Amino acid sequence: FIVAHRMSTLDICDRVMIIIDGKLTAFDTIELLQRENSYYRSASKLATTAPDASDALMLDGPAELSEEATEGATQPLEPMLGPQLGPKLQSRPSGAPDSSTRLPDFFIVGHPKCGTTALYETLKRHSQIYMPEGKEPWFFAPELHVRTPPRPEGTPTTLEQYAALFAAAEPDQRIGEATALYLWSQTAAERIAAVQPDARIIAILREPASFLRSLHLQFVQSYVETEGDLRKALALEQERRQGKSIPRHTYWPDALLYSEHVRYVEQLRRYHAMFAAENVLVLIYDDFRADNQGTVRKVLRFLGVNESEQIEVPRANPSVRARSQHLHGLVHALSVGRGPGSRAVKGAVKALTPRGLRRQALHATQNRLVFADPRPVDDQLMQELRQRFKPEVVALGEYLNRDLVSFWDYGDVE
């Protein structure tokens, strides 16, 4: 940290914090602050025009700044989105709630289809843990805000809105959050660390071939993906990197690059770079399935809560397939009110039916008419995926100091 006496001192810093009335209101690069933060621009201008800039800033502070600047400085967090999503961090949490609010003590960061929902549902039942009713706030991953899926409860875009999710927690409860794509996200680890540097991180990993099969089924079910054939979806990856063959209404185009989800070591390194080793717990999906209770007790010890409390581990989020992509699209359009006809129908149903009954009816329709059990596994494709991702399995085993090649039966994979 450098607490600057003169504005010129900030030229040597790669990130700058702006604190007003004891609240962190911005934290970003000088270039981004100069471009987007009116408070910083006005302070910079004052520093270059005042006879003794440092005294002017120190004695008068915000009172000397323009009305526009002081209004902008006290606004809630701006959405943490940059115009282009990718490996470079676009913007950061630029504000913080007041000291009376709390943020999560731990995060379940992924992966999807690896037991994160079951773990979330289990921990939510523990008396010493508070997790919000809705899983997946998506707050720290800008890649998930390209076209945010519609939600009745909305999706938080400011730190104040995000903190409000945990307002009902008791003072002695551990607070947790689960967003299964934080592990995949290029920026979530750094963003979480910016506001909760001592947070505990839980990641669950799965054998790559079975993981991608289940992930693809999940993406089809949630209308992220419209190509129902996994082999064809995988073959589209190169085109999709160029912005082609992307489903028109997909929410997360970057997530359709399936191979990016299996960069396990790179993903874990992002978190180990931000958090102490003892604050990162890596679980293997097969262990969780084989010993639910033992794995949960391990997590409870990691979180520092009573591990002897008896809590049931539910079966959650089973994989399904869409019977008909066309029918799935029609039901999905109705559920989100896309298109004039769908909006009219949804508006009429909404006016006449309570939310709970609407959601139950929609889910019942989907489960009965739209979705079915997955088709049998394509053994040839699974073998090809195992061959493709064996180097990642070897690297992960070395990184975790565990023989995953034998554990996941990759020994004979050439």
Q: Count of helices?
A: 18
- Biggest β-sheet: strands ordered side by side in the sheet: 4-5-3-6-7
Beta-strand percentage?
A: 5-15%
Q: What sort of overall outline do the alpha carbons produce when their principal axes are compared?
A: globular
* Assembly form of the protein: single chain
Head-to-tail CA distance between termini: 50 Å
Put the structure in a nutshell.
The protein has about 425 residues and is an alpha/beta fold. The chain has 18 helices and nine strands.
What does this structure look like?
It is built from 18 helices and nine strands. With 414 residues, the protein is an alpha/beta fold. The strands form three sheets. A five-stranded parallel sheet has the order 4-5-3-6-7, with helices on both faces. Helix 2 packs across helix 3 (53-60), helix 2 (38-49) crosses helix 4 and helix 14 packs antiparallel against helix 16. The radius of gyration is 24 Å and the shape is globular. It starts with 15 loop residues before the first strand and ends in a 7-residue tail after the last helix. 34% of the residues are buried.
